[in-house]
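Researcher: Structure prediction, please.
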Amino acid sequence: MTEPGARRPSRPLRSSRWFAGFSESAVHHRAALRPLGITIRPDEDRPVIGITGSTGDINGCNAMLPALVEAAVEGVREAGGIPLTFPTMTLGEDLLKPSAMLQRNLMAMEVEESLRGYPFDGAVLIGNCDKTVPALLMAAASADLPAIMLTGGQRRPGIFRGEQVGAGTDLWRYSDQRRAGLLDDAAWADLEGALGCSVGACNVMGTASTMAALTEALGMQLPGSSSMPVDDPRLVDAARESGRRAVALVRDDLRPSVILVQDAFDDAIAVLAALGGSTNAVIHLSAIAGRRRVPLPLERFDTIGRGVPMIADVAPSGRHLMHRYDEAGGLPTLMREIVDLLRPDRPTVTGRPMRDAIEAARATDGSVIRRRADALHPSGGLAVVRGTLAPDGAILKRAAATPALLSHRGPALVFDDYEEMLQRVEDPALSVTADSVLILRGVGPVGVPGMPEWGMIPVPRRLLDLGISDCVRISDGRMSGTSYGTCILHVAPESAIGGPLALVRDGDMVHLDTDAGVLDLEVPEAELAARRAAWRPPAPRHLRGWARLYAEHVLQAPQGCDLDMLVPASDAALARVDPIVGRS
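Model: Predicted structure follows.
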């Protein structure tokens, strides 16, 4: 029966295929819920909302999610829906090795299959840590049930030496001081305490905060909720409202396919540039767009990003931490400042166009979210480079790089193994100069597998001792969103499948011209051909289970590192496929 005041769905509920009528299967399905205290009538028209949060004791970034799930349950009930929670794996960026990226697609598959296989009419999907948010968005895009996202908030900052510290970013910075002998054991322990003082996502504009902002920018999350601190009461209110909105989305039949359109992704790219956000967002946005067959080539990131100034003064590319950004107005205020560069008349989960949230935002005061005329960088976008070293492209975060190194020519210093690299960069006799181009290969999607965040190769000790804090670094891996430096990442094709990176030798000259979009290996083609003929693919590191399946089916970075079997090959393949509902 319909709750008093509740609207009837605009079309028959999907869940009615499980519960409606008096067939043997319907009786069986309704009876299965009775021991759980859930009574469904044969003529039920209350939407069934699936609610999940990627949580567990092993993942402090997502430790607050159970409370948000419970608030979402309350919101669904208040709106006249039936909430049913379901679990999913948790992807803890800090502890899951070799990289949570390896399991992003697995989590996306798990959530998608739960949404397809259970009698859900809609969903509330709650995540926080780096890979959980894109995994949930990928699942929502593929299942295409009415769905709303919520992210769980960033941690409060700790204090080290009288200053607030940013998770990740300050660890990398102080790590170089430690390697240079400027930080003793006691100070190192104090830093550990400051970094580990709170649950929640990283409190800088790393991948977690970037993907939270982009989820809101895409229109899949309530306005203003993507930047709230983990302990902010508004976050629980947002979870409750998300539950209510999920019921309304079902009644209005408003699906991700209506929201996740080209204009939404273009706006997300513009927001990414204005934030100076994580390079990982390129891979995640490409994967989400691929699930809806929305074209998102690397050049689109470059073209759109070059026209957008970086105005978020937030670490690692700026000065402030995330709580200050939230206090300054968060994403709606940032989007208001660049609204003329956006396409705001597109739908969102609020049922209203994005323009409404932007116009309701307060204007920036010019401090943490700067005015366009006072931007940190005229172009906050990610530079895309191509050439003989990266035929299918690579990316570089302009705002995190040393300007003098954006155009550079120097000899390669090649590392074939991550652990070997960590040892060699500490060698004071390492043959390296300020002109050297450090190359780490074999760490791409197939190579490890999983494409870990090893792309910020440590500056060699010999250079640190000379006062040199940055150099050009190239890899087919990724870099933490909390990192910085002149790092060319996501080189494609990767070395493990025979990309040119596999052919580089020590001393080869490498030419980078960021403005021209060039990354070349200056070796004659005849020599490269000889090296290519002698090259043999490395033996696979994993021979069983998910890692094997991943390595056999993963696409390259420009395609979002999704699995080939999960990307629809045609518009017809986008059609939602529901299970046959009958006797189990």
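Model: Confidence is low (pLDDT under 50) at residues 1-5.
Researcher: Thanks, that helps.
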